[in-house]
Amino acid sequence: MLSPIRIAYLTALYPAISHTFILREVEGLRALGLDVETVSTRRPGLEHLRGATEQSEASETFYIIESAKKGLTLPLALAMALGRPHRVLRMLRLAWRTRAPGLRAALYQFFYFAEAMVLARHIKARKITHLHSHFAQASATVAMLAAELADVPFSFTLHGPSDFHEPQRWHLSEKIARAVFVSCISHFARAQGMLFSDSTHWNRMRIVHCGIVPENYRKDDRRESKVGTDILFVGRLAPVKGLRVLLEAFAAAREKHPGLRLTIVGDGEDRAHLEEMARPMGDAVRFTGYLSQEEVAEALANVDAFVLPSFAEGLPVVLMEALAAGKPAIASRVAGVAELIEEGRTGYLIHAGDVDGLRAALEMLSADPEAGRALGSAGRAVVTAEFDARIEAARIARLFLHGPGEALRPAPLCPGEVMG
């Protein structure tokens, strides 16, 4: 018997190399027996399709803008909308009410409205019964409007930090009020949602972590380990990630520990500047560009520690990957990071932007290999217990089938509960 609901998962870009946790969540829901189709606003570039899984997902995903440019898609979507006059009027009023100030914002709202019509037609054609969006910005706006036109329930996952930068512009309170449930990736994300919403809607916000498959990161490392010698960063090469601070701290730490090496995985607008900063350190700093999930797991297996000196984060999946690989981690004490890294137990927490604090943490890992190994072992236990993607998928599956319920952390759904 088929799953009693058909879910459409909407994101701005799917699959995306920086959002592999969404792919894992989709896989976990499907493994439980839920019928999940993926929808994306834009088609990703080849740099996001490094693995066979990502390529397969891309071939099965419905791309809104790409579809809208084809033949009669937009006229047919408009015809469908006009055939539901009461719904389209409500959708128009909602779109007007939730626009951001200014002419440019109004123009973008028109585009979101058009995308929502295309999505609503797709939802009706595919007999989708529930629409879910990851992140609370543009894709959630499109999902909210499409759900109104198609008359299906809507929900979204609240991440941060970008979800909280302009909550009034993105009408976060309206989205929370209209959602059947809101899946918050951390206590911090839920608290921010509470800050920007009416208290009557707080009971629909539940905590479901983003997750990983822990055993994918338990690689054999046969080399002679000297904890803290080889350091790894994985993420976008953007100012928000604090990499300029990292390079300054790393250069200072090498004065005491000249054997330190740093590998930087990822790409982005700050890469040229970072490479120029790293040039005086020669081959002690290496840039790899983007890597696939499998390649990141391999990179983690062959380093001694992980560092994430960001100025803003949600609850970083890459930190989960590092801990699952048994690596001690250094991370900025921002947003939900402290829900994953416990100071002195699973890693070291530093203040964002603190060059001296980061230098000291790098030096501690280099100077005390036994402490580093203990941190890595404890971190692996935490990730296995609290951030397994399959268990977290079973938690959000319960929300899809039964709504928000009473528990702040929904109990994982059993496969037998999915099948009708």
Secondary structure: elements and pairs:
Elements: E1 6-13, H1 20-31, E2 35-42, H2 52-60, E3 62-63, H3 64-68, H4 73-82, H5 85-97, H6 103-125, E4 130-134, H7 138-150, E5 154-158, H8 172-178, E6 182-184, H9 187-195, E7 205-207, E8 230-234, H10 243-253, E9 261-265, H11 271-278, E10 285-289, H12 293-301, E11 305-308, H13 317-324, E12 329-332, E13 347-350, H14 355-367, H15 369-386, H16 389-402, H17 415-418
Parallel strand pairs: 1-2, 1-4, 2-3, 4-5, 5-6, 6-7, 8-9, 8-11, 9-10, 11-12, 12-13
Helix pairs in contact: 1-16, 4-6, 5-6, 5-7, 6-7, 10-14, 13-15
Descriptive account of the structure:
By secondary structure, the chain is α/β, with parallel strands linked by helices. It has 2 domains: 6-211 and 388-418, Glycogen Phosphorylase B (Rossmann fold, 3-Layer(aba) Sandwich); 216-386, Rossmann fold (3-Layer(aba) Sandwich), CATH 3.40.50.2000. Helix content is 44%, strand content 15%. The chain is built from 17 helices and 13 strands. The strands form 2 sheets. Strands 3-2-1-4-5-6-7 form a 7-stranded parallel sheet, with helices on both faces. Strands 10-9-8-11-12-13 form a 6-stranded parallel sheet, with helices on both faces. Helix 1 links the parallel strand 1 and strand 2. Helix 5 (85-97) runs antiparallel to helix 7 (138-150). The longest helix is centred in the N-terminal third of the chain and has 23 residues, at 103-125. The radius of gyration is 22 Å and the shape is globular. It starts with 5 loop residues before the first strand and ends with a helix.
